[in-house]
Amino acid sequence: MRHLVAFRLAATLLLSSFYCAALAQQPTPKPTAPRPTSTAPAAKKPVATPGKVPGATPAATPGKTPATTTAGPAKPGTATPAKTPASTTKPAAPTTPPAAPKPAPVAPPKPQVPLPANMGSADPKVRYQNGKTLIAQARYDLAMQELEPITPPAARFDRGPEAAYLYAVAATRAKKWAEAEQMLNLLRNEYPTWPTIAEAFFLQGQVSFELGEADNALKVLSQIPADKLPAEREAMKATYLPRVKDKVLFQTLLQNYPQDAAVGRAYADKLVTGGWYTEADKSTLDQLVTQLGLDRTRYTPRPKAQKKSSYNVAVLLPFEFDDPSWEKQRKNQFVTDLYAGMRLAQDSLQREGRPIQLYSYDTGADTLQLKQVLALPELASMDMIIGPIYKSGSKILARYAQQRQIICINPLSQDADLVQDNGWHYLFEPSTVTQAKQAAQFAITRFASRTAVVLYEDTKDEAAFGQAYKTAYEALGGKVLQLRRVNSDVEESLGAGFAGLDLKTVGHLVVASDHRKAGPYTLGVLQAQGARLPLLTYASWLDNSRISLGQLDSRDVFFVHPKYLDKLNPGVRRFRQLYIQRQNLPPSVFAFTGFELLYYFGSQLHQNGPGFQQNLASSGPISGAVFQGIGYPAGAHDNQYVPFTKLERLEVEVQNPVGFR
């Protein structure tokens, strides 16, 4: 049976590949609205002694600009004129037109690995070998199809237990947790004497954790003999227990498994670094420190930050002060727009008697400059940190924020992995997985038919969207008939994605792709088949020059549109007016984002103080000042509200909206 060791090591939590893969630097975000052609003002590089921050030294700090508030414009909805703050300047307009961009080279398609011979063979030994080969090729769905018929005892295959285990491995790698659980139950019930049954219990623990059933996961893991997989079990607990976001549930786990050191240590971490600690937890934390022999210095929570009349917020963005060239300024347009929006929010909060002091730091485009900024003693005295832009820097700042217990907000990323297991790190944007879950909820309530076909682009984010959509939609009672991956750079791949589909018999179609070829190809297939089913896709299709608005308006096309701006909304109209008064150009979507981010989280600082996690989790969704809604319920760390549009008509209302005044 030891030939399964390689699969167990790979499937074990998928620890070596699933959670420890290095994240590449995030590319410059793509705007959902056209960028203005002029240049917005960037934060000015300081040339004199900066303003004082509590705990900061009076000497000038390179790369830092304090933004002091002035009696500037009120938030959108008021009629106070704007004043340009002293810490921003407007660079001269460019005199040289930009050179025509060179087309990016298209990478050649990857060669297709041939499928195993005799797929679907009547010989169980051939199917078994095919299943192993397909798993090695990462063709998990096909592997499951090959292995399933030879798994039950009725198949009378002498390697039925191994086939069932390999099926479960393929299902977990495809993130089909329900299918994996079903097969593992068969394996445990029908083959209880299988010599390697501990492998099945271990994999069942992972599946239960992924399904959010932490109590069952710990119960299953406890049934493994003590001498089997001890290090792997502890690694699994260390990976999954920090993801439990419900404090009451974690307290139940602590009661049910009082001698489990991993549970106790994870709960102590949640109390100290996860923002869960209250005075009522003092005795529990003291008991855990004594029982587990934890370092009392490390597990002594910081005194709860008191509410103040004014708060200091650090803004860590790649302003690129050292490169004043027009090309760099144009490339960094989204950064200066983002910061300009924050400055307007600062003025609005000042008008309301809720002052925020902004301190901007140039982090550049690499992690070295970010680390230099984080080494400044004054950063530890900040009440909140906004930034940075790139993933590599976000991971560094996330660790810093957790150690220092300072809430940090990533302004643009949609990667939920960045805020995983960190109670001090938030995304302002809804994550890709959240968008998929909300899209599934929208579809189940909007579309009469309960069947769907989901196509997703061959990228990490779109793969996460596709799988999350299928899981959420089927949990709500729907059925995803096909879940297929496509590579829009290869027309043959697009053709294979739609091959064999009769879209006239499907309830709705989901296409998770930003690729400019995906939209025209999809609409062409729908036209060729005469299919009129609803289509759910990304809002980026609205900016695709290859698709006319007439093509979209003639069909039931709905867009996942996190950055939807209702142009008739008074807040949107007022912000646009104030921004033009100050910057002499219309605001981009990044300017709106900067305003909403600081206005929302700045208000949280004044309402609840610097440690506002618990209050945020219970506050529910609210109507944003310019965007449709914002919400972080039940300990979520990415915005859980995602609007959907059909061209310019908003199709979803905010639950329990709070009016913007």
UniProtKB/TrEMBL annotation:
Signal peptide: 1-24
Residues of the Leucine-binding protein domain: 340-487
Composition bias, Pro residues: 94-114
PANTHER family from the UniProt entry: LEUCINE-SPECIFIC-BINDING PROTEIN, PERIPLASMIC BINDING PROTEIN OF ABC TRANSPORTER FOR NATURAL AMINO ACIDS
The species this protein was found in: Hymenobacter chitinivorans DSM 11115
Family annotation (Pfam families): Peripla_BP_6
Gene3D superfamilies according to UniProt: 3.40.50.2300, Tetratricopeptide repeat domain
Name of the protein in question: ABC-type branched-subunit amino acid transport system substrate-binding protein
Disordered: annotated segments: 26-123
Keywords: Signal
Signal found in the keyword field: yes
Membership in a protein family: Belongs to the leucine-binding protein family.
Biased composition, class Low complexity, residue ranges: 35-93
Top-level lineage group: Bacteria
